[in-house]
Every structure is written in C-alpha cells, then in structure tokens.
Design goal:
Blueprint lengths: L1 H9 L5 E10 L9 E10 L4 H11 L19 E4 L2 E4 L14 E4 L6 E3 L2 E2 L2 H9 L20 H5 L18 H5 L6 H11 L7 H8 L13 H5 L6 H14 L3
Parallel strand pairs: 1-5
Antiparallel strand pairs: 1-2, 3-4, 3-5, 6-7
Helix pairs in contact: 3-6, 6-7, 6-9
This protein binds iron/sulfur cluster (SF4) and FE2/S2 (inorganic) cluster (FES).
Length: 251
C-alpha cells in the first residue's frame, strides 16, 4: 500500500564500510610475548568495536579472546585500550573513530596479561575488597522500616554509586602502572560511596585504610581516570573529597 511504501522509504540505509583493526594478541600457548595482528573487517555505521571483535572471532579467528557480557555499558567487562585510550568496546561507535586509519585495540595496562585482550583482574578486585565496599552499620532499623536518609545526604555520594568496576580508571593511571600496590581510583571511588553515606558507621575505618602510603596520597591529579570513566563519574573529584575527609573529617 502507498503508506507502507512511504514508511519504508523513510528508513535510512545503514552504511557498510571496511576497517582495519590492529589487535595486540597474546596466546600463552604459543607466544613468548604479545604481538600485533591486523584484521580487515566489514562493519556498519551502527556497529561498536565490540561488534567488530565479534565478527573477527566468528568469521576469521575463533581464538581471539576478550571479555564481554551485557554489550550495553552495564557489566563493565569489556574495558580495553582503543587507539591508546581506555574505553568500553560496547560503547565505542566505530564511526566516531578515524576510520581512514587502522584502529588499534589492546588490553588495559598495569594488570597481568592472560590472553589477547584479557587481563587478570584479581589485583584490581583485591584493592576493591580492601576498602570494605559494603554498608557497615552499628544499629538496626526499626522492625519493618528502612534506614532513612535525606535527599541532601543521598546526593553526597550519588556520583560514585554509578561505578560498574570496569577498571578503565585504575588502568589509565600512571601511578598504578608504576606501582601495582597503589589502591587506584576505582577502589577510592567505591570507598567514597560508603564514606559519605550517612547510614554507614565505618567511614573512619576506610579513611584510615586510604591514609596509607599506597592510598589517596599517591594520586597525582592527572585526571586520566576522569577522562577514562565510561560512566562520567568525576573520579578525580571523588579522590579529592576523600583527601579532604582524611585531613578535616567528613562533615
Ligand atoms: S570509576 Fe568509572 S572507570 Fe573507574 S571502575 Fe568505576 S565505572 Fe569504571
Ligand atoms: S559488555 Fe558489559 S559493559 Fe561492555
């Protein structure tokens, strides 16, 4: 019918084009060290880097290894370096990159490389666990009631609740690259989330932990972490808030 034809004609065509992805590979069974490998792949203007990696894995080389789960910026499992910058592969539209040049993809830095784009996240999660990222309260709410909190008190840590533990911030930090003992931005962000929660009673314990030589004072305020965060968290500001709280208390 005429209406259907008009509706179909209005749907814009999705453009297809070819790109070259140069991926830093490491297969521990055969490689002594990581090496770059080039792949030509056809993609669409709606594709993300994750889609291109899938196409390579499914059509060209099934051994290509990377983590992913939700594909929608929620699970935090596909942080990687894309053209030298930490990003989530599932949130990086290929058409937003310079597609006239090869696109370089490699694992995030500063954590032990396991295979291709997969690193050992255990040191990252060990630092996260050390700051006690859970509510610690000395009293119980009244039976059948929730712990109450004002809107203003909730706003104090609103930004840091958004963390998805992707490690993009910590692995973009030059201090973390040179000193694997540094807690790193993500652990501090998750400490901030509870330090400034009026329902929590262990803020001072966390501030003591972060007042360590490997704690907040290692931060050199380079803002790499804030630039890298796919959730738009003001990571450097959160670290500054914690530094202030160590010096002057949380009030
Ligand atoms: S603060 Fe941002 S970059 Fe860092 S782990 Fe959380 S979501 Fe990822
Ligand atoms: S796959 Fe879940 S955040 Fe990208």
């Amino acid at each position: 019918m005429a209406t259907d034809v008009a509706t179909q004609a209005a749907v814009p065509e999705v453009q297809a084009f070819n790109i070259t992805l140069i991926i830093r590979r490491f297969l521990p069974e055969i490689d002594e060290e990581a090496r770059w490998e080039s792949f030509d792949v056809e993609v669409y203007s709606t594709d993300r880097i994750l889609d291109a990696l899938h196409r390579i894995k499914w059509d060209q080389d099934g051994s290509l290894s990377f983590r992913r789960s939700c594909a929608h910026g929620i699970c935090g499992s596909d942080a990687m370096r894309i053209n030298g910058r930490n990003r989530l592969a599932c949130k990086t539209l290929i058409k937003d990159l310079d597609i006239t040049q090869p696109i370089y993809v490699e694992a995030i830095k500063g954590l032990p490389l396991e295979k291709d784009l997969i690193v050992d996240m255990e040191p990252f999660f060990a630092a996260y666990r050390e700051v006690k990222p859970f509510l610690i309260a000395n009293s119980s709410p009244e039976p059948g009631k929730e712990r109450r909190q004002s809107i203003e008190d909730r706003e104090r840590f609103d930004d840091t609740t958004k963390c998805i533990l992707c490690a993009a911030c910590t692995t973009s930090c030059p201090v973390f690259w040179t000193d694997g003992q540094y807690f790193g931005p993500a652990a501090i962000v998750n400490a901030h989330r509870f330090i400034f929660d009026s329902r929590d009673d262990a803020g001072d314990v966390r501030l003591d932990i972060l007042n360590d030589k490997e704690g907040v004072w290692r931060c050199r305020t380079t803002f790499n972490c804030t630039d890298a965060c796919p959730r738009g968290i003001q990571v450097t500001q959160a670290i500054a808030d914690v530094k202030q709280a160590v010096l002057r208390g949380r009030a």
